[in-house]
């Protein structure tokens, strides 16, 4: 392990030219009211999880800096969004759906041109490997295409009138107002865009603040945002949440709060809103998804899924399997196979072919994980895999912890990193109780092949979590499926289809089905005197 750690971080010259860094990027631009404005105030240093060898030492790479806007400047972005919405009378919220779609398509074409730049920054800023960084970019583009298609479907269905009990009506989804969109550092592009794009396309205006890491990678998209949307429709701000976002929420001018992060931060921010009943929230929050391995099981499949489920992107996924309950009859074989699979995962730098384990972006994360391991081992667990828990700089080699019990912190805390706690069980009721008593309710995985047991566990857990995975790891995709959670794990449901609904409200225009009214409505449609009242069919 020492040899592996010694050779982990490269020298600058050994990095393939395509992925080599140029000079540090001093980013001072932010986007307000259709203009890239320059910030002359303080900047935050942006550090990479990657360290480089230099003159016999290893040093953390400084990637550049990003603006630390103050509250007043953040509020100028909100003002621009408020003006562009103009109490619902702005050009954007009133634009025909087909036209709004054209703006989003223009943006998508410009975004695709930035693939290489964004992928490179994903690797350098958050340490995501090349394959997954490319996947994040492409999945985000696909999500935009799917969103456009879903909106076309929705709009086609809204293009007709309905007649109920003598009342003629047309129902359309209308925007809600100004949306504040904030994503997480583990999917700084994808998860942010899964709220940002639906919010925009439904006619809301937006203030977007990038995640705490994965900040510079938004820079290559700023011109695309500026040129693709009318002024004020999309505004991009930077800075500390405490300073900027708190002021936005306290202003009372945010109508929709789309946030992926901790439930504590979400609650604190929601409380700042002076009229909480007027704030709609779409939240993706904490999770501690369990994997439950039953005694009658295809163990090879369970191990395969558990390893990727627990350790892809170093366990830094909200959907990661964060605790494994394994039946005593199969636990030894499970651990043995798990260790062998884990040993085959390649540590290295994000751009190296086949790399699975990479450095972690959060400062202090290695110490936090060390603390969880120390706590568990002091209370009777062992690190089973060779080198497990060893670290160098920002890199932490995954630790398989066994046997874990409820006295240990890792049994309860969301580690969000490469720690795999395994709890042996004999009585399935103890596992059921864990789920019932948990503060989290995002997803879980069941591994087994006895129909009676699986069938009854599905019923037991259907009212506990948002998704039950059978013989498969937890995950968000496919993006057309609902993604949500219960308890502290989420508010609202996101999927391509649901997100369009989250960021809009059904609005009805109704009239008595009488000659004069029929004539009036027909005239409005014939003369194209309304964007709402129209029977246009989008092809
Ligand atoms: O971090 C949470 C993400 O939504 C997980 O998405 O399951 O596709 O990795 P994923």
TrEMBL record:
Keywords: Oxidoreductase. Pfam families: Aldedh. Residues 61-503 form the Aldehyde dehydrogenase domain. GO terms for molecular function: oxidoreductase activity, acting on the aldehyde or oxo group of donors, NAD or NADP as acceptor. Belongs to the aldehyde dehydrogenase family. This is Glyceraldehyde-3-phosphate dehydrogenase. It comes from Pseudomonas putida.
């Amino acid at each position: 392990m020492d040899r592996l750690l010694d050779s982990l971080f490269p020298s600058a010259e050994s990095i393939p030219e395509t992925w080599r860094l140029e000079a540090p990027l001093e980013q001072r631009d932010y986007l307000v009211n259709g203009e890239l404005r320059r910030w002359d105030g303080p900047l935050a240093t942006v550090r990479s999880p990657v360290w480089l060898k230099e003159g016999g030492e290893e040093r953390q790479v400084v990637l550049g800096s990003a603006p630390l806007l103050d509250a007043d400047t953040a509020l100028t972005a909100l003002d621009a969004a408020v003006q562009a919405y103009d109490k619902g009378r702005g050009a954007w919220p009133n634009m025909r759906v087909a036209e709004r779609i054209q703006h989003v398509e223009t943006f998508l074409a410009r975004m695709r041109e930035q693939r290489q730049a964004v992928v490179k920054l994903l690797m350098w800023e958050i340490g995501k490997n090349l394959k997954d960084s490319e996947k994040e970019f492409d999945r985000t583009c696909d999500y935009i295409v799917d969103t456009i298609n879903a909106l076309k479907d929705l709009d086609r269905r809204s293009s007709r009138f309905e007649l109920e009990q003598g009342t003629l009506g047309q129902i359309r989804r209308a925007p809600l107002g100004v949306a504040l969109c904030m994503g997480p550092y583990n999917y700084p592009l994808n998860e942010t865009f899964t709220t940002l794009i639906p919010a925009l396309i439904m006619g809301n205006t937006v203030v977007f603040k990038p995640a705490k890491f994965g900040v510079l990678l938004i820079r290559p998209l700023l011109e695309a945002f500026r040129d693709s949307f009318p002024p004020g429709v999309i505004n991009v701000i930077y800075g500390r949440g405490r300073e900027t976002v708190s002021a936005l929420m306290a202003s009372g001018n945010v109508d929709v709060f789309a946030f992926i992060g901790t439930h504590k931060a979400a609650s604190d921010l929601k409380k700042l809103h002076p009229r909480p009943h007027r704030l709609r929230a779409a939240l993706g929050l904490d999770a501690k998804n369990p994997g439950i391995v039953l005694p009658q099981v295809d163990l090879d499949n369970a191990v395969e899924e558990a390893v990727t489920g627990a350790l892809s992107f170093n366990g830094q996924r909200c959907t990661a399997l964060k605790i494994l309950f394994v039946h005593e009859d199969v636990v030894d074989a499970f651990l043995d196979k798990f260790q062998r699979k884990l040993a085959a995962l390649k540590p290295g730098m994000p751009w190296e072919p086949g790399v699975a384990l990479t450095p972690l972006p959060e400062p202090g994360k290695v110490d936090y994980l060390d603390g969880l391991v120390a706590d568990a081992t002091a209370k009777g667990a062992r690190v089973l895999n060779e080198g497990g828990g060893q670290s160098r700089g920002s890199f932490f080699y995954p630790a398989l912890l066994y046997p874990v019990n409820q006295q240990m912190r890792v049994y309860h805390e969301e580690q969000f990193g490469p720690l795999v706690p395994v709890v042996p069980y004999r009585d399935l009721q103890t596992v059921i109780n864990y789920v019932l008593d948990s503060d989290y309710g995002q997803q879980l995985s069941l591994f087994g092949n006895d129909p009676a047991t699986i069938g009854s566990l599905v019923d037991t857990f259907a009212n506990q979590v948002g998704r039950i995975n059978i013989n498969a790891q937890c995950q968000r995709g496919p993006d057309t499926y609902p993604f949500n959670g219960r308890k502290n794990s989420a508010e609202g449901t996101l999927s391509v289809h649901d997100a369009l609904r989250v960021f809009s409200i059904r609005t009805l225009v109704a009239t008595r089905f009488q000659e004069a009214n029929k004539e009036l409505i027909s005239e409005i449609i014939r003369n194209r005197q309304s964007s709402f009242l129209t029977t246009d069919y989008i092809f």
